[in-house]
Amino acid sequence: MKITDLLPTPQVSTAVHDAASVDAAMLSRYSNRAFLPKPVDRALLQSLLQVAARAPSGTNTQPWKVYVLQGASRDALVDKVVAAHDALAADPSLAAQYREEYDYYPEKWVSPYIDRRRECGFGLYGVLGLGKGDKAGMHAQHQRNYRFFDAPVGLMFTMDKVMGRGSLLDYGMFLQNIMLAARARGLHTCPQAAWNGFAKIILPHIGAGDEEMLVCGMSMGYADEGALVNTFATTRVDAQDFTSWLE
Ligand SMILES: Cc1cc2nc3c(=O)[nH]c(=O)nc-3n(C[C@H](O)[C@H](O)[C@H](O)COP(=O)(O)O)c2cc1C
């Protein structure tokens, strides 16, 4: 199916009657960190990506490139990155080899972002009963990132290095579209910057060209609803506290 076949005509007069469903997709999206091994139908993944591609981008540049990893290719990447993550923990001097291709986080953390980051980290580890000193437990939990939290589908997102910072803005909209379209199909997701440091392992594994850089990864699949980690819910600042009304 071509992407234009999906469009309601005319777009301009298409009413979205059901605010509740749109809101439910947004409100039920959270970072799911335990998945069932249940495979995801390929046609479903294709339709989800096709719809998500309607995301806007500056001058319609559509800077995204997606790699879907399942089965042996997924498992082999997991093995490689888990081994690298273990080696890094054993010898932190290896960190110099693993550089992120763009700064996702600030070099210097300031309030209130550092406070929110801490709340998120402590909250997650708190739910899991992991104390601050439990290095092995934290390493194991962090490593679950590199197992796609057991999701059968791993996604890797790249873009051309020649593109500007604005393309990352476009990319964010595309990623959110994917996560909402996933919700509409009974799937859950976890976007993951954790992979970014291992780009030099990931890019050759997925067959990316020299001109591509890794934007992030994502786990996708059916949630393990009984998993303790999935009871962790993050907070948000109220809209009234980040909005200024100017009249
Ligand atoms: C681009 C991006 C990268 C992220 N990377 C990771 C990651 O590597 N591992 C992880 O567990 N969560 C990751 N997260 C999830 C955030 O921690 C999460 O979105 C935030 O705490 C809000 O919680 P919620 O998604 O459950 O609403 C990432 C989120 C985004 C948007």
Description:
The mean pLDDT is 96. The longest helix has 20 residues. This protein has a four-stranded antiparallel β-sheet with strand order 1-2-4-3, sandwiched between helices. It has a single domain, classed as NADH Oxidase (3-Layer(aba) Sandwich). It contains eight helices and four strands, in the order ααβαααβαβαβα. Helix 2 packs across helix 6 and helix 3 runs antiparallel to helix 7. It is α+β, with helices and mostly antiparallel strands. Bound molecules: flavin mononucleotide. The site of flavin mononucleotide (FMN) has 12 residues, from strand 3. Flavin mononucleotide (FMN) binds next to strand 3.
Q: What ligands does this structure carry? A: flavin mononucleotide
State the separation between the terminal residues, measured CA to CA. 47 Å
Oligomer: single chain
CATH class: Alpha Beta
Strand content bin? 5-15%
How many individual helices? 8
Unreliable stretches, pLDDT < 50, 5 or more residues?
none
Indicate the radius of gyration in whole angstroms: 19 Å
Order of helices and strands: HHEHHHEHEHEH
* Helix and strand composition category: alpha+beta
Overall mean pLDDT score?
A: 96
What's the number of domains?
1
Which strands sit side by side, in order, in the main sheet?
1-2-4-3
* DSSP, total strands: 4
Q: Please name the CATH topology.
A: NADH Oxidase
